[in-house]
Amino acid sequence: MNKKKKLVKIVSYLVLIMIAVAQMVPLLVMFLNSVRSNEDIKKKLIAFPESIHLENFMIAWRKGGYLQAYLSNLVIGLAAAVIVLTVTGLAAYGIVKLEAFGKNAFRTYFTAGLSIPGFAIIATLFFMFHKIGLVNSRLGMIVIYTAINIPFNFMFVHAFFQGMPKELDEAARIDGAGEIQNFWYNVLPLAKPILSTVMLIVFVNVWNEFLFANTFLQDENVRTVALRFYNFVGKNSGDPAYIYAAAVISVLPILIIYMLMQDTFVEGMTSGSVKG
Amino acid sequence: MKQFDRRKLKGMVFVLPAFLIHVGIVLIPAVGMVWYSFTNWNGLKAPKFIGLQNYVTMLSDTSFFHALKNNLIWMAMFLVIPLAIGLILAVILSNISRGQMLLRTIYFLPYVVGAAIAGKIFATFYSPYSGIASVFKALGIESLSNFAPLGNGKLALYAVAFVDNWHWWGFVLVLMFSALHQVDRSLLEAATMEGAGPLRKFFSVTVPQIKPTIISYFTFILIASFTTFDYVWIMTQGGPSNATELVSTWIYRKSFISYEVGYGSALCTTVCGGCLAIYLLFTLVQKLRRRGEV
């Protein structure tokens, strides 16, 4: 029996590790190829670098316009994250703590809003924004990303507020604190962990978003990282080394944040999304 | 009492910013789309009401039905494959003691890589000039030395789905893994005492307990497979010659490339209506079954 258990354990680990390696291979190839030469990659897709070509990164960074793209993403991502955080925090506070009029209707609305696909709105929104000059505009993207990130993050913050003890608010109210003060001094400090999660989710979603960015940002100067990369590949298809270097530049910030905050990522992104 | 009402009113004011932003950017354009589906709008000129004409055109749009078929194939794949991989690995993972978190982190990692990056990296792998083909060539496998699935109408859809699955199953694994954590251990032990084998235990004890998570997964996929867009657009734009066309890419093409926004809206309304119907039917069945059980 014991021997059998040990065997099961060994096989389990073997399977798990082999699949983990397989899952990582595409990214490993990307990292390795980002420092190889174009000729070398064309001869053989998978190999260790014969010599290190760090200039690939300089070329990709400059050709791809990544300085501007990083700035775009920082501005759009942070602004959207802060606004989403503020409005979903307020909304969840209003519904959970103040028991707003129509709270059930609001909750149903946000739940339903979660499943309205980008497709159902993109054409109408595009021509609407076109009219008022919000196409090719960072402000336009901030507004869109704020709106589409509201439902998920509302549910997330809402669930957290519901789990918080009521006594605290009662105490604050007796002390005569206004709702804004209570929200700011009592609720927000307790909700700190959830706040960074919301910021993170929105920032990463904006970084990776493709459909809206591809439609609304046609002007080079406002394009986000994902879109810059998408266009870079189209223009440099003969130079795979630069493509891999550009890919590394495009994904590295997210990978670093992921490595530093994996639990926040995994829990934030999976909670409430597909779960019933 | 009055004070209480004032509080509720204040609460409503707190909800309004989030609500109004979402209504303005999502709900109004969504309703607008339904209206435009009855017009000949091209995005620029004033739309003219043409009744059901777009819907009539749709019925003879073979590309649309071809795309719909691809969506069904896509759905069939994603109902089964990521769930099977995710669930099986989650079960194995929950039975080991060390390295759980590290492995979970690795499996989940592709999920944080954006579609544009994953899609284009794999497209480069699939390239006949500098991709996997060169590996086959080096290995002396001549029959695969021209391996270029994205250019092959029979393989392209599966080659794209492979990438989406690579990105997605780790997410499913995490969902299943946390669902498995809530499975009642004592029931499993009882089953072991009565001599149930591992397979029997899995299907008779574990699966019934994580059923809600599995059902939410199915519901999600039923809808998501009709709205999926990124990977196909990024890797093939629906090509070669419509082989990977999905309803989403077809609608996108109609709205933004040939500027038949009214027609695109009609297709989109149909697809969204279909998704809504599936969703309602699913929740209804769930409710009836739950009532039946009680």
From TrEMBL, chain A:
InterPro entries attached here? BP-dep_ABC_trans_perm, MetI-like, MetI-like_sf
> Locate the ABC transmembrane type-1 domain: which residues?
70-261
Its subcellular locations are: Cell membrane
Keyword tags: Cell membrane, Membrane, Transmembrane, Transmembrane helix, Transport
Topology of the protein relative to the lipid bilayer: Multi-pass membrane protein
* TM helices/strands, residue ranges: 12-32, 74-96, 108-130, 142-161, 182-207, 241-261
Give the main localization category.
membrane
Biological process terms in GO annotation: transmembrane transport
Cleavable signal peptide: none
Does Disulfide bond show up as a keyword for this record?
no
Query: Where is it found, in Gene Ontology cellular component terms?
Result: plasma membrane
Q: Which superkingdom, per the lineage?
A: Bacteria
**Which PANTHER family does the record cross-reference, listed alphabetically?**
DIACETYLCHITOBIOSE UPTAKE SYSTEM PERMEASE PROTEIN NGCG, MALTOSE TRANSPORT SYSTEM PERMEASE-RELATED
Q: Which family does it belong to?
A: Belongs to the binding-protein-dependent transport system permease family.
Q: What is this protein called?
A: Carbohydrate ABC transporter membrane protein 2 (CUT1 family)
Q: Which organism is it from?
A: Faecalicatena orotica
Automatic annotation (TrEMBL), chain B:
Location of the protein in the cell:
Cell membrane
UniProt KW Transport keyword: yes
* One Pfam family recorded for the sequence: BPD_transp_1
What domain of life? Answer: Bacteria
Q: Which SUPFAM superfamilies match?
A: MetI-like (SSF161098)
UniProt membrane topology term: Multi-pass membrane protein
* GO biological-process terms attached to the record: transmembrane transport
Q: Which residues cross the membrane?
A: 12-38, 72-93, 105-126, 166-183, 214-234, 261-282
Alphabetical UniProt keywords: Cell membrane, Membrane, Transmembrane, Transmembrane helix, Transport
Where do the ABC transmembrane type-1 domain residues begin and end? 68-282
Major subcellular site: membrane
Q: Name one GO cellular component term.
A: plasma membrane
Q: Which family does it belong to?
A: Belongs to the binding-protein-dependent transport system permease family.
The name on file for this protein is: Carbohydrate ABC transporter membrane protein 1 (CUT1 family)
| Species annotation | Faecalicatena orotica
